[in-house]
Amino acid sequence: MKQYIAKRVGYAFISLIILSLIIFLLVRLTGDPTVLLVEPGASQADLDAMRKQFGLDQSLWVQYGHFVASLVRGDLGHSFYYRTPVLELYLSRLPSSLLLAGAAMVFSLVIGIPTGIVAAVRVNRWWDSAGKIFALLGLSLPSFWVGLLLILFFSVYLGWLPSSGSGTALHLLMPAFALGWYFAAAHMRLTRSSMLDVLGSEYVKLARLKGLPEALVISKHAFKNALIPVLTLAGINLVIMVNVAVVVETVFAWPGIGRLLYEGIAFRDFPVVQATVILNGAMVVIVSLLVDILYAVIDPRIRLAR
Amino acid sequence: MRLARSFVALAIASALLAGVTALPAAGAEGQATWAVHISLAPTWFDPAETAGIITPFMVLYALHDALVKPMPGKPMTPSLAESWTQSKDGLVYEFVLRKNVRFHNGDVMTAEDVKFSFERYRGASATLLKSKVAKVEVVDPLRVRFTLKQAWPDFMAFYATPATGAAWIVPKKYVERVGDEGFKKAPVGAGPYKFVSFKPGVELTLEAFEQYWRKPPSVKTLVLRTIGDESTRLAALKRGEVDVAYSITGPLAEEVKRGQGLKLVPTYFTFTTWLVFPDQWDPKSPWHDRRVRQAANLAIDRAGINAAVYLGLSKLSFSFIPQGMDYFWAPPPSPFDPKRAKQLLTEAGYPNGFESGDLSGDTIYGVAIGEPVANYLQQVGIRLRLRPMERAAFFKEYGEKKLRGVIFSGSGAPGNAPTRLEQYAVTGGRYSYGAYPDIDGLYTEQVNEMNPRVRQQILTKIQQLVHEKAMFGPVIEPAFLNGVGPRLEVHGLGLIANHAYSAPYEDLRLTRP
Questions:
Q1: Distances, alpha carbon B130 to alpha carbons B133, B147, B160, in Å
Q2: Residue among A282, A277, A259 at smallest CA distance from A81
Q3: What ipTM, to 2 d.p.?
Q4: d(CA A116, nearest CA chain B) in Å
Q5: B232–A253: do the CB atoms touch at under 8 Å?
Q6: What is the pTM of this model?
């Protein structure tokens, strides 16, 4: 088991090193950030001074060396745009992102699981069709469009909810819905298919043959077993939500990591993009690592097979 | 069926709950709130880091004050300086400071702070400005003297306008105590508002500084809130969550015009857009013929573009130098005359027009204005393929002189006519694809000319030559459109010439304090 864990940790570490190299090179392919930080028409001397200040006048490998050395020290660099330490910026935005992801996850589970169960239990009937439409819309409607419609309806027409920003529970409702709908649809589909698998299994048939009430068969025998893959997916989705909230956070002016990443990309703020991608990547890698380890703990065949 | 009923009941309950707990839409008492289109950065709190863009002045006008700065009706208004003098030889500038001006922490402003602020300035044009200044001397606590290495007619144009932030004064003792990073976290200035709190990229809160020398501000609290999405800014304005929403364009601007109690207010800064003909120096190119360039100028319906994109609120432009810049010369307007344009093309040997490759531009103005421009040129036979490029990539290729065909250019860089000419129209300019010897000669002549009248004459001559040669194809000076809500009686937009944002903040007034 120890060997297995060490191997997985090694893979995770290598993944992060490769990620850091890729993102370091990719952001530099996107163009010169200094031209976005001054007005077009600024003098060459100003641009040169800014490049020097940001260390962009040095060769790529020298820059990468500095970057890695700083990373080892836990220093993710200074933002070109904000001119403050990136780690400080990231940590100031992280709680908002986690809050939004958490709320969106609660929403997606509260909606996705019951509708998935109902769709499976009432398969090929009205509820199933409604569930399929819900899932189709959730998976296909772009979140920025959903977000704008929500603002238009609930803020502008009804005046019930604040249009943007953060600070109260009411601020959270629309962004959580806009972000969570896609995942609710995904959870609904997985719950439905998982429930259908379980409902067709031998032990469920046996439970029915024994004359147990249908509600008990569904809630005790089928639902519990069907829930395992859904919760596994939900765990990974929670991290993904933090990473993909870029559009929702921008539309609702939600002060999270997604918006920080968007701004970083818009201004070619290399340190911000690098740090956000690496830290978000680390989050995904760590969660995947924990899932791998947990699976290995639960199922010895996994660690023996690898 | 029971399940369906439960869902309906839940939906109704949620709706009622939301109704009961709905937020009040109106802004807080004594507070004015702005929806800002761009992320607020702490670097804007420190005048030493002003990056040659107008945006930081949105914050500088609140937190800080300058010796001399643009104010309503006057581009160079004595502020922290009561007056200044210039020696006859143009080498010495002496500023007399206002007495008993206090920073937000209670320190009294002195000449030491002025010297310190200049010396620590490292923002736009810092190298140029400092290379011209031989020394800065504190004559007495209320008098500071700048001695130049040689006469430089643009000293005040760089020192006392948004071209730099060098004249914006910070408290020496405080900065030395807290350091540069500490200063950005808790800035102290001599402006009408003092710092309260800041969430980077999210929200800045400022409170009125009652001891501000000019007058105590009327609005107690200012909040600048970043809302990146234009539709969301409009929604916030309509709901009364904000009092001013910056940068509202196109159909959304129409919506503001229609909105009850809302106003659409354009502002202007030194921003203009124009076509560059980089192949005009290539004898094989159709653009080498002046008549072709003149035809392009006549083919563009500037008023039509203005009406369609900016609701008619932008300024038509016939020069690549903005109308608000010093030494600007107004060329005669080019009428929209496609018939004459076609005639000129025929005279130049292109009766059926010609293929001109790409019209390269950025994805913002290069599309919004560039696309109709390409269509108008197409109508007279100048066939171009619109090539919108990501902003950084566009300016990189533009600066490296890699673009051909026609370039859709724009600049909002502060300065004056000579600084704009230097970058785009003379040899060695960052964006100059070529030059003409007569223009180059006159440009060199004006550089050290201390007599403003003579300098004006030379610069007028240069601009006349640029016009006669049809060197560029000016299009429009885009308006910066903003939505204003009913709570602000004086919103400050457009009070200061060439300033895009609300200012001076101490002049703002709420309809109901």
A1: 5, 11, 14
A2: A259
A3: 0.76
A4: 13
A5: yes
A6: 0.83
